[in-house]
Amino acid sequence: MTSHTPVFCSIVPPHVLERLAEHADPAVAEAARRTLAGDLAQRTTRTERAVPAPAGGTGGKPRRTVHDAKNGTRLPGHQVRAEGEPPTTDDTANRAYAGLGATFDLFLNAFGHDSIDGAGLPLTATVHYDEKYDNAFWNGEQMVFGDGDGELFLDFTIPVDVIGHELAHGFTQYSANLAYYGQSGALNEHVSDVFGTLVKQYALGQSAEQADWLIGAGLLGPAVDRGTALRSMKDPGTAYDDDVLGKDPQPGHMDHYVRTGSDNGGVHINSGIPNRAFHLLATDLGGNAWGRPGRIWYATMTGGTLTEEARFSEFARATVTTARDLYDEQTAEAVRRAWSGVGVPTS
Q1: Which of 52, 144, 242, 312 is 20 to 30 A from 250 via CA?
Q2: Letter string b/e over residues 307-318, b meaning 16 or more CB atoms within 10 A of that residue's CB
Q3: pLDDT tens sequence across 216-235
Q4: 3-state class (DSSP) for residue 68
Q5: Which residue out of 166, 169, 189, 279 is catalytically annotated?
Q6: Active site residue 256
Q7: What's the pTM?
Q8: β-strand 214-215 against 143-145: which pairing, if any?
């Protein structure tokens, strides 16, 4: 693929922030409005940035730099830690550095993929972005983390799967380059959730059965009474049901597909459908999800057969073909069962 369209992709869905922006508590509403405004500015800037060229191989070692925005919005900010340097006194910077490394390790060791572009792209992160910024994002060039407001959202470097999720948007950018709207956009978000949870499971040495399959566990603050994470891949729609955040809107089956004009056609919502399919496959096959399931998804993304506007059914068919090519008909049948379980046809 010759073009790699950069896209602004954030971990907290717009529908959550839009609800919070109308909250009666001025502090909650102001933090959400500030975050939405910052997201919009970044989304607009994306059209003016060029994607960095591949940097050449890394020799199996990451090239990480972490910067501090010092609660401003200028990127990348002041460099506070480079590859190989000792930990700083800032736990947030150290978590970002470790998360970049954990993501690099998964892609290299599980899939033989050198950094997120396969060609040794340096990994850059900025921490302490803006004031009480309730999000983390990939802007087409680097990772950016807010500190959260401390009540609804905590420091966005805490869950390693959030770091993996956002960096995986870079992986998609450099591989299948899935368009960020409608079903292809939901697949874009889904792929980030898949590789985000695989980063966490790989780092913890967890099997598919042992994993919690939550995206963003540990991110929600003390003001959230009924919530465990941003999303559940195992049971979409159950991550939160809270007076402040509202009800998790993710469906887990095509019967409940959400048709909406917001959030680029519901990319953060309908991603629950393929998310559940991947969970069904991983638990059906057993063992480590970065094994056969992860390799099938990785090979599908890098195989060059997907269109940029791929719908769920196209992606599902491609994973069946990949499973057969990499493994056998029995594995391909397991992939069919997983997609059938969420109502996506593979024939």
Answers
A1: 144
A2: eeebebebbbbb
A3: 999 999 999 999 999 999 99
A4: strand
A5: 166
A6: no
A7: 0.94
A8: unpaired
